[in-house]
Amino acid sequence: MVKKTRTLVLCTFFTTITLVMGGCGMKPGNKTLKNDGQEIVDDKNPGQPVFSNSEHDFGEIEPGDEVGARFSFSNKGAGSLIIERVSTGCGCTVAEYSKKPVSPGDEGFVEVIFDSRGKHGAQFQQVNVYFQGLNKPSRLSIVAQVVKK
Known about the structure:
- The protein has one helix at residues 2-23; strands at 49-51, 55-61, 66-75, 83-88, 93-97, 107-115, 121-131, 138-146.
- The protein has two domains: 1-30; 49-146, Immunoglobulin-like, CATH 2.60.40.10.
- By secondary structure, the chain is mainly beta.
- The strands form two sheets. Strands 1-3-6-5 form a four-stranded antiparallel β-sheet, with no helix packed on it. A four-stranded mixed β-sheet has the order 2-8-7-4, with no helix packed on it.
- A hairpin with a 6-residue loop joins strand 7 and strand 8 (138-146).
């Protein structure tokens, strides 16, 4: 009985939300707001991230060094850009990035930090940047040669 009541309440809730959104004129492609007030990207006019460079070579570094690179991008599209998430290849690489929407003509960033602890030899780490409304991630990479000096 409790399970049926819970299911009925959930169905009623989702039906109400659907009717309210439809009544407010929210159609696919229109800008809407999330609960936290962050803008959702307009699918018909997406932003277009253009990175000034997509690879950084740290050259030779020593084991245990932590090195970082900042990748800047411009929004060359008609709509705002929002970074949904950034994924790194392993736990030795972390990323920080622009949290606010990047308006057309403005710039944002992705900062990648590589920890060479436990690494040796040639290192190649790839970072994928996922933008809301875009199908493919932007790919960034860092390269280093970890050598004992």
